[in-house]
Amino acid sequence: MPTDAANFTSYRFSTSDLPERIRIPLWREHFGRCVVHADIEPLSNVPLQADASLRVVEGLRTLALKGTPMRFKRLQANLADGDDSVGIIFCAPGSSQLTQRGRDVELCAGDAIAILHSEPASVTYVDGLQFGLAVPRAELEQRVTNLESLAMRPIGRRTEAFRLFAAYLKSVFKTRALTAPKLRHKVVTHIHDLVALAIDECPELGESSASAVVAARHSAALEYITVHFQEPGLSVQTVARCQGISPRYLQRLMASSGTSFTERLNELRLQRAFELLTGSHTGRQRISDVALEVGFSDVSYFNRLFRIRFGETPRGVRLVRKAAN
């Protein structure tokens, strides 16, 4: 599979539908040697289970792996492929062990680390989900100094740079932004900038870095709102404090996407209320209980917003649902 594909490509390999006797040879030969250019060694006595998803776009490769314990070795012979990209490996949850440049590092849930694909390395996947991405070495060398010194150095998951990077990646895959041709180049450039910010305390970033940080902060704020929207006291001040930014800055971030904090919050709450009112258990909760459950403390306000949004009152939507059943 080409690693420099110009268009978005998705590839999946799973052993679940393969006869047990051919799982290991196919996994090692087809996926290991032909796709990721590494030797794979199963480390468990139980039948091999492996589910891997590889995505390729110009300037970026990603790999998600889940299965039984195994070790990936990128040996000297594998380096003939000429891949000099830099890999970032995330461990969530579970654990992994990595060896490169004479260093051994164990990753636990939430940890991440950078490795050099141009040098021999060993990655032992133990359990949980392992996610990795690879970016061109040339892109990072434009942004950081002494790239080799940053390899095999654990990335602090509690740092703001890492938090922004992780939130941005989550948003990218959730919205499938890489599949949109008009967004792809900008998104990949943002990822290059955010990788540099995450692995180096003082990256030499260009003008695009400001755009990348803004995009990452926006993604992190939206993710927080999506997780906590049902909390009655959620406010601009609360979200801003948890994101380490000012309320005014958060309001500007939200406005940049064409919607205010209140509009986003109310939309999530109203959509959840609609699901509750039209679900299989509709009729068991009072309208006021539904309003409180989704975060509205004022039932009259909830009723008014609901009617504006859906063209019908909560009670009316419930009656229509009952009649349809």
Task: Describe the structure using short key phrases.
325 residues, alpha+beta, Jelly Rolls, Arc Repressor Mutant, subunit A, 9-stranded antiparallel β-sheet, 9 strands, 22% strand, globular, disordered N terminus
Q: TL;DR of this structure?
A:
The protein is an alpha+beta fold and 325 residues long. Helix content is 44%, strand content 22%.
**Unreliable segments (pLDDT under 50, ≥5 consecutive)?**
1-6
**Which percent band covers the strand fraction?**
15-25%
Rg over CA atoms, rounded to whole Å, is 23 Å
In whole angstroms, the N-to-C terminal distance is 50 Å
- Summarize model confidence as the mean pLDDT: 86
Provide the helix percentage: 40-55%
Characterize the overall form. Answer: globular
Count every helix, treating DSSP H or I runs of 4 or more residues as helices.
Answer: 11
Q: Got a strand count?
A: 9
Helix-strand pattern: EHEEEEEEEEHHHHHHHHHH
Overall CATH architecture of the domain at 1-155: Sandwich
Looking at this structure, what is the CATH superfamily of the domain at 1-155? Jelly Rolls
